[in-house]
Amino acid sequence: MTTRTVVTYDARHVGLPGVGRFVTGLWPALQRAAGGSGVELVALTPGRARGWLGPSALTAPAGTRLRSAPLGLLEHAELPRAIKKAGAAVHHATHLGVPLRPPVPVVLTVHDVFPLLEPDHARSAAAAAYYRAVMPEAIRRASLVVAVSELTACDLADRLGVTADAVIEHGIDHSLWHRRTEDEVASARRAFGLRAPYLLYVGTAKAHKNLGTVLGAHHVGLPTLVLAGPTAAEVARAAARLPPGVRVLGRVEDGLLPALYSGAVAVLAPSDYEAVGLTALEAMACGTPVVASTGRGMAATVGDAALMVATRDRRAWAWAMTRVTEDDMLRADLVRRGERVVAGRSWDEAAGRYVELYLKAAGR
């Protein structure tokens, strides 16, 4: 008879960019990997929708809805109760949700320590102070620490003196992120009133995303620059002015995003820092060329499969957008290279390694 090991999985970030992508991508693969291992998963889901990128839901065989928001004070009381009620032997904190007094060993996924490296990029001085106080202690309370990339592992060691127990890279859900048909692309364009050709940016308007540089580099004669994710107000805070030839779509649901990727001339990934460049990986999986910055972490994500541009050099970005628009052979080569990069990324592989860590944390 297989010994049962119950693992609670913090899914309260579902629907958000970045960490939310991780939560929803890993979950179904974990369910597959848990079969036969004796691991039983219990999802701790949000009490209210936080769908930054559109409606999102996590379907779990068993689950507990929590009222506490991630990183709030209430979670330190509510999380231990939920973990004990589930009969868990291990808790998977998908993003710093480590109780002050964990009732069981905690496997913590650390996405990056960027708030500690660049506190000026936080949304407020209070947020920067919060991360300085909370992040190091949450990491030290964990039983096992997982870094999502070698960059994150290095930053953990350099900044906090913490050695990651494992580096487990993100996978790609190839059932969602894949090249769409011409009809699907045309339907997505109609939904947003877009005409071909267009360049595409997907993400937030946070300072380190460097959106202002590509807005300043875009000029008349280039295809329309389409921004999926940030609202008009957020774009206004990222750039002094919005140049002509730019369309701001705001939040875009995942159901339409793969077709937007597929129809783009290229996807722009100008970030200063990315532990994992998910936008670039999604674009490559959809058969779209990527123009990426030389910011920290981007080269490790894209390998040789992107046109690389100096991060804050507007003239270089203008040149790159022109070149990728006009050079059919370059685009075809970038597509082939990108498909090779993402072909080896699998959530199932990541999930298998997490299940091993769950059993290790539980003493099995």
Q: What's the rounded overall pLDDT mean?
A: 90
- The end-to-end span amounts to 14 Å
Q: What is the H-and-E element order?
A: EHEEHEEHHEHEHEHEHEHEHEHEHHH
Find the count of extended strands (DSSP E, 2+ residues). Answer: 13
Helix content: 40-55%
Q: Order of strands across the widest beta sheet?
A: 3-2-1-4-5-6-7
Continuous helix count: 14
Number of domains: 2
Q: Structural class, from secondary structure content? A: alpha/beta
- What is the CATH third-level topology name of the largest domain? Rossmann fold
Q: What's the architecture of the largest domain, going by CATH? A: 3-Layer(aba) Sandwich
Proportion of β residues?
15-25%
User: What's the CATH first level of the largest domain?
Assistant: Alpha Beta
Unreliable stretches (pLDDT < 50, length at least 5) are: 53-57
Short description:
By secondary structure, this protein is of the alpha/beta class. Helix content is 41%, strand content 16%. The protein has helices spanning 19-34, 75-85, 114-117, 125-141, 150-160, 182-192, 211-217, 232-238, 257-263, 278-285, 298-302, 314-326, 328-343, 347-361; strands at 5-10, 39-46, 63-66, 90-93, 106-110, 144-147, 166-167, 198-202, 224-228, 246-250, 266-269, 290-293, 307-309.
Sum up the structure in keywords.
globular; Rossmann fold; six-stranded parallel sheet; alpha/beta; 364 residues; 2 domains
How would you describe what is shown here?
Strands 3-2-1-4-5-6-7 form a 7-stranded parallel sheet, with helices on both faces. Strands 10-9-8-11-12-13 form a 6-stranded parallel sheet, sandwiched between helices. It has 2 domains: 5-171 and 346-361, Rossmann fold (3-Layer(aba) Sandwich); 182-343, Glycogen Phosphorylase B (Rossmann fold, 3-Layer(aba) Sandwich), CATH 3.40.50. The chain has helices at 19-34, 75-85, 114-117, 125-141, 150-160, 182-192, 211-217, 232-238, 257-263, 278-285, 298-302, 314-326, 328-343, 347-361; strands at 5-10, 39-46, 63-66, 90-93, 106-110, 144-147, 166-167, 198-202, 224-228, 246-250, 266-269, 290-293, 307-309. The chain is globular and about 60 Å long. The protein contains 14 helices and 13 strands. Helix 1 (19-34) crosses helix 14 and helix 10 (278-285) crosses helix 13. It is an alpha/beta fold. The chain is 41% helix and 16% strand.
